[in-house]
C-alpha cells in the first residue's frame, strides 16, 4: 500500500506523462490487462485514458485494471487513471519513505 507522501510524489511524476492506453467501448479485457502489466514492468508508472464511449464507470475500470495488473491505483482524475507497480527488473522510481 502506498502512503500519502508516496502517492503525491507519483502524482507529480505522472503529471507530465501522456496516456499510453485507452479504454473504450469494449471495456477492460484480458489482453488489455496483459499489455498494461507488461508496460508497467518497463515503466512502473503510466496513465490510462477512459474514452467517452466506454460503457463501464471509470472508477470500476480503474479498480479492474489495478486488480488485474496487481498495481497500485495512484489517482483517478477526470477520465485519466494513473497506475504504479514497482518493476522487478527495471526499477527506476525511488519512492520517499
TrEMBL record:
Organism domain of life: Bacteria
Transmembrane annotation, as ranges: none
Pfam family, one: CRS1_YhbY
A single GO molecular function term of this UniProt record: RNA binding
Keyword Cytoplasm: no
SMART domains for this protein: CRS1_YhbY (SM01103)
Keywords from the UniProt entry: RNA-binding
KW Amino-acid biosynthesis (keyword) present: no
Domain CRM: 1-96
Annotated InterPro entries: RNA-binding_CRM, RNA-binding_domain, RNA-binding_YhbY, YhbY-like_sf
Gene3D superfamilies, per the entry: YhbY-like
Coiled coil spans: none
NCBIfam families from the UniProt entry: RNA_bind_YhbY
Protein name per its UniProtKB record: Ribosome assembly RNA-binding protein YhbY
Amino acid at each position: 500500500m502506498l502512503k500519502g507522501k508516496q502517492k503525491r510524489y507519483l502524482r507529480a511524476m505522472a503529471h507530465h506523462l501522456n496516456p499510453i492506453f485507452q479504454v473504450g467501448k469494449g471495456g477492460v479485457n484480458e489482453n488489455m490487462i496483459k499489455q498494461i502489466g507488461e508496460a508497467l514492468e518497463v515503466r512502473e508508472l503510466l496513465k490510462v485514458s477512459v474514452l467517452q464511449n466506454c460503457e463501464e464507470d471509470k472508477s470500476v475500470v480503474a479498480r479492474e485494471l489495478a486488480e488485474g495488473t496487481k498495481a497500485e491505483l495512484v489517482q483517478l482524475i477526470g477520465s485519466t487513471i494513473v497506475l504504479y507497480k514497482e518493476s522487478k527488473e527495471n526499477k527506476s522510481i525511488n519512492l520517499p519513505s
